[in-house]
Amino acid sequence: MTQLDPQIAEVVRRFAAAGLPPLSALTPAQVRSGGSLTGADVAPDRWGPVAAVEDTTVPGAAGDLPARLYRPQPAQDGTAPPVVVFFHGGGWVTGDLDTHDGQARMLAAESGAVVVSVAYRLAPEHPFPAAPDDAVAATAWVRENAAGLGGDPERVAVAGDSAGGNLAAVAAQSPAGRGLAAQLLVYPAVAGGREFPSVRENADAPFLDAEAMRWFGGHYRGDPADVRFAPLDAPSLAGQPPAVVGVAGFDPLRDEGTAYAEALAAAGVRVVLRRYDDLVHGFLGAAPVSASADRASRQLCRDLGELLGTR
Known about the structure:
The chain is built from 9 helices and 8 strands. It has helices at 6-17, 28-32, 101-111, 130-145, 163-173, 197-201, 210-220, 254-266, 291-307; strands spanning 52-59, 64-71, 83-87, 114-118, 156-161, 182-186, 243-250, 271-280. An 8-stranded mixed β-sheet has the order 1-2-4-3-5-6-7-8, sandwiched between helices.
């Protein structure tokens, strides 16, 4: 049996020693004010060098949304870079531009794309379907304005981790996603709460366990009959953009991410599926504390770059 990455295991021990209360005992506001997986501040360049970072806004479904623009180092041939719309994880309840600043920097640095990180509306203040509606609206706007952002309008992609992977998949399936160049889905939530074997196998997994999934789901109130909550149940996945899908061994969402990759491939979509058996849910944010997580995260970002023609 594959063992948990030792450096991640050390973080797990540190969190356990801190005696933190379970997620179910906290309010969304309390969770949002908590620490990161790394438990320490990390110098921005540790994630990867970018040419510029700019705070801005993009239109959502019900008004402007905070966003952050990351520009990669210029291409040697002077061509306009691709553009990636990035949606952060956090169970549709937590997460923001700052919690995923490092991940967005890494994505820009390793993929060679302009990254537009979008802070969609969060539950419970804005329950389902506010987040997917924002994701679709933001994707449509970025596609229409890619050239004005300094990018190539013919090479626009979506990306996200966990709940953000759900939103990226939803955006790709929407009319706004037709003709997207690629999608990157990292341990995505795509099955609308359906129980795959990995949910039971990893019911007590670090950082995302069965109890935490119920807590997030109770606040988000997604509709399992709606493909915006369960994109795996779309009537057809034919014509979806080429995909990179990453899953972790110690993650309740492992099997649904795998199932989505397999369903895309069965529909004739080009898919790169990466499974990291020694890692946990959230490894995209653990690069500063785990060499294994760092390698996996950069590999996925470079995979996206290959689909976009920058690598």
